[in-house]
Each structure stands twice: as structure tokens, then as C-alpha cells.
Amino acid sequence: MDKDILLNNYFEGILSEKEKQQFDELLANDSEFKTEFEFQKKAKVAVALSERQKLKNQLKEIENSRKLKNNNKTWLSIAASIVVVLSLGFIFFWNSSTTNDDLYADFYETFPNIEAPTTRGENNLNIKSEAFYAYDSKDYKKATELFSEIYKVEKTDYAIFYIGLSEMELNEHKKAINTFSLFEGDSNNNFYYYVKWYKALCYLKENDIENSKKLLNEVVKTVNPFQSKSKELLSKLD
Predict the structure, then answer these.
(1) Most exposed of 63, 141, 161, 233 (fewest Cβ within 10 Å)?
(2) Longest C-alpha distance within the chain, in Å?
(3) 94: how many CB neighbours lie within 10 A of its CB?
(4) Taking the alpha carbons of 146, 151, 153, 154 in that order, is the dihedral positive or negative?
């Protein structure tokens, strides 16, 4: 069975007994497969934690709003109205008035640091740790500078990726497109589809739908973390 499908089935929790045996054998004997597995595992954990925190924040906001209501009937009426809006209004959400900015805002999410989790104060803090600390702290200007220094010396893929991400956070999408264009990894590279997804979003933000769709169509061709999102976004652009 294809290795990408095995990985996808593992993370979906739908491996058959035969597939599980093949998966375990590859994990034990195929170093490239193990590296890809560990990378995707870190990415999924980081994204899951990010989503969990986002949900907690949303629930907290709702709870705070509820506490401000003195009349329970008023609160229940508002809650019911929200349900109606979500149920009926969603049908009309993606109408002709939807702009590329709207789509971008709906699909863009800050990508987490999955390379070098660190906190200031650690011993032997190096430039890589400093760069990711800046990124985690939302100091994207500094992060861009530090990752650029790393790239000058090491020409590493993660440096390109996080420079581009930092530029996107700074709303410098044209710069991010140029940065992502420096990436020359093949489809086996850990960052291959990550770069294409975020570059496609940059083109979307710049209203270059042709290039955005071209990249999204490349992403949907194989199993990867952004395959389903790319399919969904393409359906909105058609």
C-alpha cells in the first residue's frame, strides 16, 4: 500500500490489521517513513493544541457574555437566534458578495512552531531557538530577520517556510510569495505541501486566482495535511 495512504489511515484511526503490520514494519525499518511520520505527528499535535485553545477562548467569551445578562430569557433568546443564523444563514454565506479577503480570512490559520519549541531562559539558546521564540511571541518582524540569517548560512527549508509565514503575518503577501518561491524541495520534502498551501493563500490575498488554483490543484493530488482544505477552497473559487 502507498505510504501516504498508510500515514493518512493511521492518523484517521482506520488501519486494518494488515495495514497496521505493514505500518509497524515501515516504522521500524524505513528511516524516511519514520521521519515523515514524526513530522506529521508533531504537526497534528501542534494544530490540535492550537484549535483546543481557540475553542477554549471562544467558550470563555460566550460565558463572559452570558454573565453580563441579567435576564435568562433574554440570553436564551439570543442563543436561539444564533442557532437560527448558523443553521439558515450558512446557506447564504458563500454568496456572490464573498470576497477573496473573506475566503482568505476563513481559511488562513497561523501555522504553529513544530520545529523547535522553546522558552526564553533556556541554557545555550541559539539563533534557531531565538527565531522560533520570536515567532511564538508574535514578533514576526524579528522572526523574519532571524530566519533570514539562518537561511543565509544553512539554506534550510524550514527557514524559508517560517520567513514566508512571518511575512504573511505582517500582511506582506507579495514578499511571502517571493520567499516561498525559493523553496525547491521535491514532493518527499516535509514542507512541500505546506509551502504550496500557504503560497496559494498568498495568491488568493493578492487576487491572483489563477495561480492560487494552480497550486491548490497540485496539493489535492496526494494525501497531505492540507488536501481536504485545498479541495474545499477550490470549490469556493469555482
Answers:
(1) 63
(2) 64
(3) 13
(4) positive
Average pLDDT of the segment spanning 2-9: 76
**C-alpha grid cell, residue 112:** 504553529
Residues 205-215 have a mean pLDDT of 96
Q: What phi, psi does 171 have (nearest 5°)?
A: 60, 30
Q: What burial letters (b/e) apply to 51-84, b meaning 16+ CB within 10 Å?
A: eeeeeeeeeeeeeeeeeeeeeeeeeeeeeeeeee
Q: Say which range, 58-67, 79-88, 211-220, 221-230, has the weakest mean pLDDT.
A: 79-88
Q: Is the pLDDT of residue 78 over 70?
A: no
Question: How far apart are alpha carbons 13 and 23 in whole angstroms?
Answer: 12
pLDDT band of 57, cuts 50, 70, 90: low
Output the pLDDT for position 48: 55
> Residue 13: what residue type?
G
C-alpha span between 29 and 35 (Å, rounded)? 11
User: Do residues 106 and 91 make contact, with C-beta atoms less than 8 angstroms apart?
Assistant: no
